[in-house]
Amino acid sequence: MLKRRQFMAVGAAAAGAAGLAWAGKAVLDRPGPAVTTSGTAGDFPRTLAETAPAGGGPVRPDMRFDHVAVRLAEGTQPSARIGFVDEAGETSWQPVHFGDHGRDDVASGPAAVVAVPEGAVGYEVRADGAEPAAVAFNTRDGDGVSSEGPATGTLRASEQSSQAEGSSLRFLTRAGWGADESLRFDDEGNDLWPAEFFPVQTITVHHTAMAVGDDPAAAVRAVYQLHAVEQAWGDIGYHLLIDPEGTVYEGRHSGEDRIPVFDGPPDGTGARAVTAGHVAQMNSGNVGVCLLGDFTDAQPTQAAQDSLVQVLSVLCMYTGVNPTDDVNYVNPGNDMTITVQGVSRHRDWLETECPGNTFAENFDAVRDRVAEIVGQG
Fold this sequence. Notes:
Elements: E1 8-9, E2 34-38, E3 42-45, E4 48-51, E5 67-71, E6 81-86, E7 91-95, E8 111-115, E9 120-126, E10 133-138, E11 144-147, E12 152-156, E13 169-172, H1 174-177, E14 197-199, E15 202-207, H2 216-230, E16 240-242, E17 248-250, E18 272-274, E19 286-291, H3 302-319, E20 326-330, E21 336-341, E22 343-345, H4 357-361, H5 363-373
Parallel strand pairs: 15-19, 15-22, 16-19
Antiparallel strand pairs: 1-21, 2-12, 3-11, 4-10, 5-8, 5-10, 6-7, 6-9, 12-13, 14-18, 16-17, 20-21
Helix pairs in contact: 3-5
C-alpha cells in the first residue's frame, strides 16, 4: 500500500528548496539548447461538443462522438461510472478514472475524459450522490482549423555542450497536433490563462486513464477541449504528452519562441517552466509529463516507456533536477509544500490512482533508467 505524502502551507521564508541542483555537474554551466523546426502543420478538424441534457438517463448524441467528458461539482467524491450503449441497446459499464488536476488559481471539481468504444451510439453517466455533467466530443468531423506554424520541433543542446549527445527532444508542436489556439482567449481577445514562469523543482508523470484509438492526436485534442473549455482553464494542463508509439506532443503554451515548456533556452538550475495544471495547488515549478493511455491494469508500450525515459532525461539535464533525490518542493505562488523525489508519480503528491496501478508499481525502473542516463545512477 502506497503511503500518501503529507503537505502543508508554510511561510515564504521556507521557499529556498535545497538539494535541487546537482552541484559541480557540467550540465549547470553548459550553453543553452536551441530549437529547430520543420514541416507545415496544415488544417485540423475543430472539436465539436454536445452537452448532455439535464436529468440523467441514456443519451444519444446527434453527432458521431469519440470521447465523453465527465465533470463533478467541486468537493464531490471522485466516483462515477459510464455506460456505452450499442445499436442493440446493450450497455457496457466501466469506471471513470478521475485525476486530481487543476490550476493553482482556479477551483476545480473532479473531471475526466473517456474514449468511446467502437460501435457505441449512446452513453450514460452515473455518480452516487452527485449530478454529473457530461459532454460528448467529436474530434474528427468539425470544420477545418488552420494550424499555422511548423509541425515538428527539436529541442537540442548546443554543440559545445558536454551533454549534447543524447540530450535532444523531438516533439510534435501544438500546430502539429491541431491545437485550436482560439480556445485560449475570451471574446475580447484576452488570454484566459496568462503564462507565469518559475524555476523547475520537480517533474511529475501522469496517464490520461483512457484508451487511445488510431489517432493519438485526436486524444490530445480531447484532453485540450476538457481542460481549456469544459473546465474553463484556457489551455491544456500538461507540459508534454507521449502516445503509445512514443511520439511527444507539446502541451501548455509557453510563448512564441517555439521553445516548449520553458520561457527561453533552459540552462540547468534556474530553468523556468510555464505554470500548468496537472497537480492541483502544486503546479508552479513542477513539470507535468503525461502518457496517453490507461495503465490501471497494463503497462505502457515499450515505445512509450523509452520515449518517457528520454523526455525525463532531457528535462533533468536541462533543469538540474536529480531524478532520485528527495526534493522539498515549495509552490512559490501559494506556499504549499511537500517532499517528493525529483521525478515522481502523480500519486506521490495526492490521493489519486494516476499514473495507473500497474505502471505505478513498476515506475522505479523508469526512474532508475533516467538516473543512469544523466549520471545519477
